[in-house]
């Protein structure tokens, strides 16, 4: 498999290149970023906030599905904004204008909103789609950057995204126009998020596979080991008689309990090494209860799993596990650092 040749720099940080190699001029690159910033500032400074408020309020009041559509690069932006709304629990979808004209328009109803992204507002596929969507009873909104345009006369609401020009030297490639479309759509999405009092917990519920979602959803009881998985022993048991229990359950400890499964303490593999070093052959006569930690860190089953991880890592020294107990200090499980990591936390 081939690879690009390495970039060689001189002491002046200039590229060494062959006679035919093309170079990026750093000054020109910086100027492009500054120019794009200027064009984006033009958008922010000239956006009609009253019209934007009406657009946002219309989406908030929608009782149906908010569909987005567009062609080419504007179509990709429309898809992305739709996905953002979906992730925030808002009913949304992308409607391909071409597919809509060949049957997919059947998904539209009179309760729906159709947002049409187009830089020029004269995109043929959208102009053809608009009256058909209107006939279905949908509420039509155009989001364009050139006025006047054909869509303005076909839609119920029109939003203009002020565009000074494209960053492209020919003012052709849609790079600035799509940037402001994305900024506009995603900012409106966050406004809807706030208006709907969308919480972190609700966000997490829509992102259960991600680390953020797991940290806000998973509780200790969801990730703990329980019942036969627990390395349990009694305080009167000899340490040497419990080595199999200590090593076979994969927890790195023994959970010392009394009658009623009430937790008395813990005895770790680290405790075993320290006891062996200090007692030598005397370890054969020592009980778990004599050497266990009578004041271990514990956690409840309804605590968040991420809280368990924070508790394990807290001073004075980190630990690899936490016994899980109820309000009566009855042992019901154990959560391990390995288990939390395996769960994606």
UniProtKB/TrEMBL annotation:
SUPFAM superfamilies: SIS domain (SSF53697)
Gene3D superfamilies: CBS-domain, Glucose-6-phosphate isomerase like protein, domain 1
Keyword Cell membrane on entry: no
The species this protein was found in: Cinchona calisaya
NCBIfam families xref list: kpsF (TIGR00393)
Pfam family, one: CBS
Transmembrane segments annotated in the record for this chain: none
Protein name, entry field: Arabinose 5-phosphate isomerase
Residues the record marks as site: Catalytically relevant: 73, 125, 166, 207
Source species, domain of life: Eukaryota
PANTHER family tied to this protein: ARABINOSE 5-PHOSPHATE ISOMERASE-RELATED, PTHR47476
Record domain SIS: where: 55-198
Family: Belongs to the SIS family. GutQ/KpsF subfamily.
Domain CBS: 224-286, 292-345
The keyword Repeat is annotated on this UniProt entry: yes
Keywords per UniProt: CBS domain, Repeat
